[in-house]
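User: I'm new to structure prediction. If I give you an amino acid sequence, what do you actually give back? Let's try with this one:
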Amino acid sequence: LPDDEVPFEDPRDVPRDPVAGSGARTAAPGWSDEPDEPSPDDPLVDGSGLVGAPLVARLLGGTVIDEQIDDPNA
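Assistant: Good question. You get back a string of structure tokens that encode the predicted 3D arrangement of the chain. For your 74 residues, that looks like this:
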């Protein structure tokens, strides 16, 4: 074999990672059963009359490019 060519290795000879494929997973972050209360510095949207994409655009300071509305009769 040339010096720059790596010989084919038999996959049975390659050491395996003991964690790989064992189904071991990191624990998911927990959650709180307490309701999420608004912060005093949160913007007030109750009286704006906005819902959906226009509300999100206002809160995030963005522009709605396309809004797809699901058919309520489907």
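You can read the tokens as a compact description of the fold. Here is one thing that stands out. The mean pLDDT is 73.
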